[in-house]
Each structure stands twice: as C-alpha cells, then as structure tokens.
C-alpha cells in the first residue's frame, strides 16, 4: 500500500494552484506525509501570501522563504528543518527558471548570463539542496525532481531550458550513484506539458499541449495530480528498488516517432 505516514517531506516550487509542486504536495499529504513548504520570496510578499492561502488546508509544519540563488536562505531552510523535524525523508525539487527572452527564437542567441542563470537555478540547485538534505536523511530518503523531454530532444523554443534539463537528468544519475549508499534514492519525473506560470514563458506552450492531444497514445496531456501520484509512488516504499531513473508521465508521448 502507498503509505507515507510519518514521513517528513520538503516541497519546493509551489507558486499557485497550477504548479506541479501543488499537485505533488496534495498527493504526498493524502498519502500521510507531513509537509514543509518553501516559496520564492518577493519584495511585496505576494508569493508567500498566495502559497500560505493555498497550502493551509494541508497544514504544513512550516513555510520558509528559499530562493535557491541565496546561500543564506538555503542554509536557513535546512537548519530550520533540522530543528523542527530532526530528520527529513523526502525532498521535492520542483523549480526552474530561464528568462523569457531565452525561451523563444534562435537558440544560438542564448547569452552567457541567460545560460548561467538557467543552469544555476534549474540544475545546480538540485545538487545544492540534495547535499544539505542528505545530512538530514538519516534513515534513507527519496529525492524527486521535475524534468521535460526538451532535455533529451529538440523542442522548439525550449532552448536553454533544454540544456538545463539535460544537466539536471545527469545530476540525478550522479547523485543517485553517490547517495544510494545512504539508502537515498534520486529520480526525475519527465512531465508532459502543463499550463503553469513557468511553462507560459515558453513560446508556443499551447501548441505543445495541442500536439500531445493529437499524437500521444492517450490523446491528451497530463495533470498536476497525475504527476503528484507518480511522485508519491517514487517517495514510497513501493519504489524502494528504483533510483537514478527518469520516469515519463506524459500520456506516452515519449515513445512516438511520428
Ligand atoms: P511553476 O511556475 O508553478 O513553478 C516553478 C517554480 O519555480 C515556482 O514556484 C517558482 O517560484 C520557482 N522558482 C523559480 N526561480 C526560483 C528560485 N531562484 N528559487 C526558488 N524557487 C524558484 O511551474 P511548473 O510548470 O509547475 O514548474 C515546476 C517544475 O516542473 C519545473 O522544474 C519545470 O521545468 C518542470 N516541468 C514543467 C512542465 C510543464 O509543462 N509545466 C513540464 C515538465 C517539467
């Protein structure tokens, strides 16, 4: 049975009710996990307000500001988890960023700054958060990140984010190889296109979804809850033999050649 009772789960990346992280948080909580939630702080506190209002029914143990580009915030997040919970079982890495100008037009126009920022936020952050999480995963654990087909195939306009996802998927393998000795499993979910704040920045997201509806074996795209169900499975003992993998939750689109 899928049971996460007594497991402490840190969920990053909730921005609003369309966020994939929101679908994951709901399914982890339904399976019995205790939640801790981080948000990206902004000057006016809008993200925090929205995330608190949304997540309140799931009764998270805490809400913490955590911009992954800010070392102090990352340190403080894990220090507080240590104080509050003592141990961590689950880390959901569900965040990414690239400038809108990098997500349409010619890939060869990618700037050094845009490349560095996209890779730092979307890929390096998994290494950073995992290295802090492993210290608290004293009874083993599960780390899950979110990737997209654009990390292994060329998808129009995905551009630099494709490079970030490619690096992210390789991070998953290197982290899995190292952390397996501590019984910490590391996997990625490659989700089909879903309309969210982040995906709206990618040129032609509506066309991508429409294309799946025509071509994917299930003739539709997927929901945040379907991704959440897979995340809950990967975090549970049912997936105890799975690590270093990229699991496609994309209505089967990945298998299609034409
Ligand atoms: P979203 O906009 O709801 O979530 C992105 C999150 O990243 C937001 O909560 C945002 O606050 C956070 N974030 C951005 N910069 C950050 C920073 N510096 N520090 C901390 N957090 C930061 O969009 P989403 O589509 O739910 O994205 C979640 C993940 O799913 C991303 O990794 C995305 O690439 C991946 N993904 C999305 C799709 C899709 O079609 N929506 C498909 C496959 C994979």
Provide a descriptive summary of the structure in words.
The protein is an alpha/beta fold. It contains eight helices and seven strands, in the order E-H-E-H-E-H-E-H-E-H-E-H-H-H-E. It has helices at 20-30, 46-55, 71-85, 112-136, 159-179, 197-200, 205-215, 224-235; strands at 8-11, 34-39, 62-65, 90-93, 141-147, 184-191, 246-249. Strands 3-2-1-4-5-6-7 form a seven-stranded parallel sheet, with helices on both faces. Helix 2 (46-55) links the parallel strand 2 and strand 3. The radius of gyration is 17 Å and the shape is globular. The N and C termini lie far apart (38 Å). Residues 13-15, 18-21, 40, 66-69, 94-97, 121, 146-148, 191, 193-194, 196-199 line the site of nicotinamide-adenine-dinucleotide.
Care to count the β-strands?
7
CATH architecture: 3-Layer(aba) Sandwich
Low-confidence stretches: none
State the share of residues found in helices, binned by percent: 40-55%
Radius of gyration: 17 Å
In short:
With 258 residues, the chain is of the alpha/beta class. It is built from eight helices and seven strands.
Key structural traits:
binds nicotinamide-adenine-dinucleotide; Rossmann fold; 7 strands; 8 helices; 258 residues; alpha/beta
């Amino acid at each position: 049975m899928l049971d996460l009772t007594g497991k402490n789960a840190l969920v990053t990346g909730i921005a609003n009710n369309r966020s994939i992280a929101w679908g994951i948080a709901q399914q982890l909580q339904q399976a019995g996990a205790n939640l801790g939630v981080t948000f990206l702080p902004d000057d006016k506190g809008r993200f925090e307000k929205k995330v608190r209002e949304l997540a309140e029914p799931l009764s998270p143990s805490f809400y913490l500001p955590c911009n992954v580009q800010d070392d102090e915030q990352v340190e403080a997040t894990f220090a507080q988890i240590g104080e509050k919970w003592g141990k961590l079982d689950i880390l959901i890495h569900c965040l990414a960023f690239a400038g809108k100008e990098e997500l349409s037009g010619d890939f060869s126009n990618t700037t050094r700054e845009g490349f560095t920022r996209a890779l730092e936020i979307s890929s390096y952050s998994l290494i950073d958060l995992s290295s802090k999480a492993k210290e608290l995963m004293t009874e083993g654990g599960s780390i899950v990140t979110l990737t997209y087909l654009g990390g292994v195939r060329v998808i129009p306009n995905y551009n630099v984010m494709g490079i970030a996802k490619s690096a992210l998927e390789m991070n998953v393998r290197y982290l899995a190889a190292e952390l397996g000795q501590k019984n910490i499993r590391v996997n990625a979910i490659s989700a089909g296109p879903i309309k969210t704040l982040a995906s709206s920045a990618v040129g032609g997201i509506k066309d991508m979804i429409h294309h799946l509806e025509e071509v994917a074996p299930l003739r539709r795209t997927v929901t945040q809850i379907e991704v959440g169900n897979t995340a809950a499975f990967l975090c549970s003992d049912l997936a105890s033999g799975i690590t270093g993998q990229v699991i496609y939750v994309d209505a089967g689109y990945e298998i299609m050649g034409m």
